[in-house]
Amino acid sequence: MQESAAGTTDAQAEVAEKSRADAHPDQAFGSDPLAVRESDHYAEEYNEGFVDKWDELIDWKGRYESEGSFFVDLLRKHGVESVLDAATGTGFHSVRLLEAGFDTTSVDGSAEMLAKAFENGKEYGDYVLKVVHADWRWLSKDVQGKYDAIVCLGNSFTHLFDENDRRKALAEFYAVLKHDGILIIDQRNYDSILDNGFSSKHTYYYCGDEVTAEPEYVDDGLARFRYEFADGSLYHLNMFPLRKNYVRRLLREVGFQKIDTYGDFQESYANEEPDFFIHVASKEYIEGALTANYSSAVNTAREYYNSEDADNFYYNIWGGTDIHVGLYQSEDEEIAPASRRTVEQMAKRLGLTEGQKVLDLGAGYGGAARYLAETYGAKVTCLNLSEVENERNRQFNKDAGLSELIDVIDGDFENLPFNDNEFDVIWSQDAILHSGDRVRVVEEAVRVLKPEGQMVFTDPMAADDCDTSSLQPILDRLHLDSLGSPGFYKKELTRLGLKSVEFEDHTDQLARHYGRVLAELEKREDELAATISKEYREHMKTGLKNWVAGGKSGNLAWGIFHVKA
Questions:
Q1: What residue stretches are annotated with the Methyltransferase domain (predicted)?
Q2: What pTM was estimated for this model as a whole?
Q3: Which pick of 220, 306, 349, 532 has the fewest CB atoms within 10 Å?
Q4: Are residues 537 and 389 in the same domain?
């Protein structure tokens, strides 16, 4: 018998739920509360008793102090004058915005919440709120005019269970904004709850000292939260556990060009740390928005690979058109044939046929793409963040007469500019490590993969049982917080529904490859002095030695993943 997050059995939970439903009939969830996964149910959940208790949960004074002037400063920075508070609740943010001088309209789908917000407006500053009872999915029908900003706060967007409802709501937000408007939307850190279990600093959002707000049950399609108050009263909300990057993707697909995401009001954070994420999405047309949306880790990698030193090093030393780890048959084998052997071995697993569409993530100079196009007649799209490498790639394709089969696109793998279910094969070699959000990369790859598609990739990784502190020299050089691991990729790919995840372990090749690159650099250093700076060469030698040491110590892993949808 399963246990819920609160430690009760299913039978106990059912009895308890019946008694709660009797105490609060208007909030009844029926005989199976976990089956209630409908966007329209929120209106029944916010019954009069719960609404009367809501301000105890919020604690206006505590939230005012913890939040500070974050939203006010953000709106002023964007030159905002008019604001639509799309999830007014009991009016906390509407009152704050009115205090700050913004022309504010207050919207909510719960009539009970709006009534309480109107009362609170009078009580906290004698404000007369302009309230509108509206459903987000048909917002433009009930709200007149356009706004400089829309704020949708308090984890409210998670009340929408259906993806079509979420897309429709965001499209309505987009339509009601002025041409250069912004949308500010927040959510709980459901990634951390789903992956690591629930914890909360109880600081930023729900500040009431005598109220508990904790999940009673969580799966990928439901987060059922339990709210218990000092007088013993108990309420629940059923919400959809939105992952951070899923929301960012929806925002982009609706049309917002630039999205900044804060964690507990901070720009810098580790993904598991914040209680809440705050997305700031800009509607304004921004030239170069693609690179503006690159994460800091991706931008670091882009700047590095675009440098003249890096281009000269990888092209001349690492193997020319294949810049990834090789499969060596002897200690002193040349880098280029060993690197090509990796491509051949990966390709053999796929059973490619002419005309199949392949997406190469982090394609570098496009060596694998040309091999797949020439050998199998595949149509390959190369996605790569270095414009310098991409120009070389295009020229090589032209010289080889393969331009008709290979497209080269500037971009990064955290935000794939492709439709769902577009590619037969996702291919990547030693590139995903450069992302600071590998979960996002895997999710994006699976999104654009066809239902019967395949994914094949390699990546320098941490061993599953490694001493992470020993990897710090490598991480510092890459400006990363962590590396992936075989267990990480297996877990994420399985979570996303891939039916077969195989890992062909070639960890021994990692130290051998970096050792060969180091030896080649040292052998040809005088020759390279004219094109690669001494500082770069010295840093590279240090970095290569760290990779060799990590590989020999057993703290690193490498091999070929083959995944089937």
A1: 83-181
A2: 0.62
A3: 220
A4: yes
